[in-house]
Design a protein that fits this description.
Elements (H helix, E strand, L loop, with lengths): L14 H28 L2 E3 L9 H5 L4 E11 L6 E14 L2 E27 L2 H10 L9 H6 E5 L2 H8 L14 E12 L8 H19 L1
Antiparallel strand pairs: 1-2, 2-3, 3-4, 4-5, 4-6
Helix pairs in contact: 1-6
């Protein structure tokens, strides 16, 4: 088996290997600093929770192959913010001309416990193809009192009347600023992705913290 030059002492004086090692250190520091942002702002502690397999939306929103990105998860079990956080890794094949490459990307994903039991619901950014499809299916649920939200997102649910009743007094307009929000609700659990920006870095960590707190205020407020 080939040795990783990052761990082989025989390459200590090789400039390329030195640069590679420094890059790995910088990447790991960025990951550690990003996780610290989540732990501090969301009051999270490390756990060993398994990623919930009953949810399927992220496989279409991110990539068909999803794996735990790190052997660690985080949780805040307080009633004020009943939240679990996972780092998932998506793996897919990228095609550019005749070249193909396997691409790996990581994302922060949250699982929020809800005070109310919801019908099965999916909320995702609305695309042109969604609007065209809905001309024939009429499956989308719009909220007349929340035009910004309805213009930004495509909402599908198994019970339109019940979901309308539950959300009728929620501040849905506040969610319109989360342009990349993707969420799936099963009963009283909401799995969500705040941003489709990949990578575990301080920018995506801050986006996740802000999005998680806002989503909790809107859905559990």
């Amino acid at each position: 088996m080939d040795e990783d030059p990052a761990n082989d002492g025989d390459f200590d004086n090789d400039e390329d290997v030195k640069q590679y090692r420094e890059q790995l250190k910088a990447e790991q520091k960025e990951i550690d600093d990003s996780i610290k942002i989540l732990q501090h702002q969301l009051n999270l502690t490390a756990t060993n929770e398994d990623f919930p397999k009953q949810f399927c939306l992220l496989k279409t929103a991110v990539a068909p192959e999803l794996y735990p990105g790190y052997d660690i998860s985080f949780a805040n079990n307080s009633p004020a913010l009943p939240l679990k956080v996972f780092i998932i890794e998506s793996i897919y094949t990228s095609h550019r001309g005749r070249r193909t490459a396997t691409v790996s990307e990581n994302y922060f994903v949250g699982l929020l416990n809800l005070k109310t039991t919801y019908p099965y619901t999916v909320i995702k950014p609305e695309r042109l193809e969604d609007k065209i499809q809905d001309l024939f299916t009429h499956a989308e649920l719009d909220f007349a009192e929340s035009k910004k939200f309805s213009n930004a997102f495509y909402v599908l649910t198994k019970d339109k009347d019940l979901l309308t009743t539950i959300l009728s007094h929620k501040n849905l307009e506040a969610l319109a600023e989360m342009k990349d929000l993707v969420l799936e609700i099963i009963d009283n659990q909401c799995l969500f992705l705040c941003s489709t920006l990949s990578g575990i870095n301080q920018q995506t960590a801050q986006l996740f913290c802000d999005g998680a707190k806002l989503l909790n205020r809107v859905l559990n407020g």
